[in-house]
Amino acid sequence: MTGYGRVSNSFDDKVINVEVRSLNSKYTDIRVKIPQNYKEKEHELRKIVSDKALRGKIEITIEVETGNGGDEYGLNEALFRRYHQELSRLTNELQIPTADMLQAILRLPNVVGAAADTIDDKEWAAVHKTVDGALAKFTEFRTVEGNALKEDLLLRVNNIASLLARLDPEEEERITKLRQRMRQSLEEHLGKDKVDDNRFEQEILFYLEKIDITEEKVRLEQHCKYFIEELEKQQPLKGRKLSFISQEMGREINTMGAKAYSSNIQKLVVEMKDELEKIKEQVANTV
């Protein structure tokens, strides 16, 4: 699910800004944007983020500003001079305009880098604290979104349960209509006196057994209850299990639709499918 958190803290003459944001993803994909002198801590930083953010396409950005408001970066003057010397020679020889040479050199690797090569323990402790703060806000953002998502999912599942309860009277009427239609068809083709009532009842029972949806209704009701139970649990990473349950719900609904032989039941099945599709869309966004 989506999430966002940003925190700024001061350390000596610096301001450390940490921003964490995420987009929906089935897997954990962490992108890190940090100053060059923090690279040695990247592995540790990734673990901190993965432990607390759990899942999603997550991007963490750390920016360090100096006391004068500028970024904590320095210029490699020796390398800049070498690039400038060589590029000036080539531009003179090849008669190439030099209008954008400055910007071109600044974009070359290692010309602009962090002012320090490493980070000391005190500064890393300050960064760690700031990262924790940003992740706390990030989690709070997700919690608010998750609660809204939970309410919507509960609404959709309860809607399916309500539609399921409306099937019983429709199914009784369906059986009565099927019996009457089959009886009328036999009498029209064979004549009323030639219809064997016992054989007719046997065939009716066999046919009704094939289109009976009692088992599907029971299983769908259980799936709905199970879905709500899992949704109410106070634990992370429930999205995959909810996805599996919704797939099972879909199987039962599809089977009922295939056995319906009733326009009214088909309409209820279509409404169930509509609610289920909304559930699947929302579940894909859960952690």
TrEMBL record:
<feature type="domain" description="Endoribonuclease YicC-like C-terminal">
    <location>
        <begin position="170"/>
        <end position="285"/>
    </location>
</feature>
<keyword id="KW-0540">Nuclease</keyword>
<keyword id="KW-0378">Hydrolase</keyword>
<keyword id="KW-0255">Endonuclease</keyword>
<dbReference type="Pfam" id="PF08340">
    <property type="entry name" value="YicC-like_C"/>
</dbReference>
<dbReference type="GO" id="GO:0016787">
    <property type="term" value="F:hydrolase activity"/>
</dbReference>
<comment type="similarity">
    <text>Belongs to the YicC/YloC family.</text>
</comment>
<dbReference type="InterPro" id="IPR013551">
    <property type="entry name" value="YicC-like_C"/>
</dbReference>
<dbReference type="Pfam" id="PF03755">
    <property type="entry name" value="YicC-like_N"/>
</dbReference>
<dbReference type="InterPro" id="IPR005229">
    <property type="entry name" value="YicC/YloC-like"/>
</dbReference>
<dbReference type="InterPro" id="IPR013527">
    <property type="entry name" value="YicC-like_N"/>
</dbReference>
<protein>
    <submittedName>
        <fullName>YicC family protein</fullName>
    </submittedName>
</protein>
<feature type="domain" description="Endoribonuclease YicC-like N-terminal">
    <location>
        <begin position="1"/>
        <end position="150"/>
    </location>
</feature>
<dbReference type="GO" id="GO:0004521">
    <property type="term" value="F:RNA endonuclease activity"/>
</dbReference>
